[in-house]
Amino acid sequence: MPGKFVVSLTHAKDNADKATVAFVVANAAVASDKEALVFLSIEAVRLSQQGYADDIHEEGFAALKDLMTGFVNAGGKIYVCSPCFKKRQLDETRLVPGTVIVGGAKLVEFMSDGCPSLSF
Fold first, then answer.
1. Under a CB-based contact definition with an 8 Å cutoff, are residues 81 and 40 in contact?
2. Cβ(90)–Cβ(53) under 8 Å?
3. CB within 8 A of 35, min separation 6: which ones?
4. CB 43 within 8 A of CB 81
5. pLDDT at residue 35, rounded to an integer
6. 2 phi, psi to nearest 5 deg
7. 55 to each of 19, 37, 49, 112, how far by Cα in Å?
8. φ, ψ for residue 85, nearest 5 deg
9. Measured on CA atoms in the order 105, 78, 6, 18, is the torsion positive or negative?
10. DSSP code per residue over 29-46
């Protein structure tokens, strides 16, 4: 079943359960043949930094780092909110593979044809 799917994530270590479940759902979307995108904003932009997710592992789930890597390896995209990234003074040279820093217009463009989405 082709189509697009967006997961919007605003949490990282401040709510590791939401961050983990967001990537579980994103992996389900990409495994269901959706053009899947995770949009990281607010605190979730920290997940774009190499090493940040390494110690996030909610009981009963795969480690967040593995969920993120699996998502990208399956063809999923990770967009990182540019203003949120800059506000937190993060390092563009330390981006996790598969992440792209974008403005909100890029997300709107992806969703413009009608696209289901979930927010965590």
1. yes
2. no
3. 2, 3, 4, 5, 75, 77
4. no
5. 97
6. -70, 165
7. 13, 23, 13, 36
8. -65, -45
9. negative
10. HHHTT-EEEEEE-GGGGG
- Map tokens 């997300």 to a residue: 107
Residue 32, both tokens = 């269901």
- Which domains, and CATH codes, for the chain? 4-119 (3.40.1260.10)
> CA 95 to CA 46: how far, in whole Å?
10
pLDDT at 2: 74
Write down the pLDDT at residue 1.
54
**Which of left, alpha, beta for 73 (phi over 0: left; psi -120 to 50: alpha)?**
alpha
Longest dimension (CA), the chain: 40
Residue with tokens 């043949």: 33
Q: What is the mean pLDDT of each run of 10 residues along the chain (120 residues)?
A: 91 98 98 97 98 97 98 98 98 96 96 94
